[in-house]
UniProtKB/TrEMBL annotation:
This is D-alanyl-D-alanine carboxypeptidase-like core domain-containing protein. It comes from Candidatus Kaiserbacteria bacterium RIFOXYB1_FULL_46_14. InterPro entries: DD-CPase-like, VanY-like_core_dom, VanY/YodJ_core_dom, Zn_M74/Hedgehog-like. The keyword Coiled coil applies. One of its GO terms (molecular function) is peptidase activity.
């Protein structure tokens, strides 16, 4: 009985040892399977990651190419836009030039010529359009006086503003035809002889034939011209006439005629303002410089 128990215990112990070894073998086998499966999964994921990296790299390359192409396209578009803008500017300039040339072709080129013994207006010259000066602006209301129609609005604005400043100006002489000037000069010559040449132009050399020139008088002179330089009206004209395009033709010391403070010629706001700013007079400039103002004389 004692042997049988011992044999039983021995057999049981052997069985337990074998069982534990079997379990450990199974567990290790399962672990190896799990490990192999995990390794396989990791290898598969590495392959997938490698593939994704390759795809990403390929896409990055394509994106870089696309970005470069876009940059190139933007540069080309920008260059094309600049060329189009330049062409549009050229077209605008050309259109402006054509418009200016058309405007200039329709503007009387005589209006800014230096007459007064320099240029000659023939007996056939008459301004393109003349307008009767309103009675309220004339010293003698019944006297027929005319002015260039395109100058009239500047002229009336000037006299209206002068009145607002309590300065009264009246016209005693304006447009004179070639033959009216000849008759006037003839009368002066009879009275003053060659001395008439110092204050009266020969026919064809008078600014009055242009229809843009006015002789003014003011209160206290009884319609005369002498003494105009000493009046508030003259001071107002010196300070303001340029704003309306008028300038004094024959200042004191000029090379053509005696001092004529009453004699004002319309030359356009731009030219008159520049002359006033620079303290110059119309006949101080060259004809070339004056001609540059013709385009905008009535602007």
């Amino acid at each position: 009985m004692k042997w049988n128990r011992q044999a039983y215990l021995t057999t049981t112990l052997i069985a337990l040892v074998l069982a534990s070894q079997g379990y450990f073998w199974w567990e290790r086998t399962e672990m190896e399977k799990g490990q192999n499966t995990l390794i396989a999964d990791l290898e598969q994921r590495d392959e997938e990651l490698s593939l994704k990296h390759a795809v990403i790299k390929e896409l990055s390359g394509k994106l870089a190419m696309t970005a470069e192409e876009l940059t190139g396209t933007e540069d080309r578009l920008r260059g094309e836009k600049e060329r189009n803008d330049a062409m549009e500017e050229q077209i605008d300039d050309l259109a402006g030039t054509v418009s200016d040339l058309d405007k200039l072709s329709k503007t009387d080129k005589e209006l800014l010529q230096k007459y007064s013994k320099v240029y000659f207006l023939n007996e056939h010259y008459v301004p393109e359009s003349l307008k009767d000066i309103e009675a309220k602006w004339k010293y003698s209301e019944d006297k027929e006086l005319k002015i260039h129609s395109k100058v009239n609005s500047f002229f009336e604005d000037m006299l209206e503003d002068a009145l607002d400043d309590e300065v009264e100006l009246w016209v005693v002489s304006s447009y004179r035809s070639f033959y009216e000037q000849a008759s006037l000069k003839g009368a002066y010559t009879v009275t003053y002889g060659s001395g008439a040449n110092t204050f009266s132009a020969d026919q064809g050399f008078s600014e009055h034939q242009l229809g843009t020139t006015i002789d003014f008088t003011t209160k206290g002179l009884n319609g005369g011209l002498a003494g105009f330089a000493s009046t508030p009206a003259y001071t107002w004209m010196i300070e303001n006439a340029h704003k309306y395009g008028f300038t004094l033709s024959y200042p004191d010391g000029n090379a053509y005629y005696v001092y004529e403070p009453w004699h004002w010629r319309f030359v356009g706001v731009d030219l008159a303002s520049d002359l006033h700013r620079d303290d110059k007079h119309f006949y101080d400039l060259s004809q070339r410089d004056i001609d540059q103002y013709l385009l905008h004389i009535f602007d």
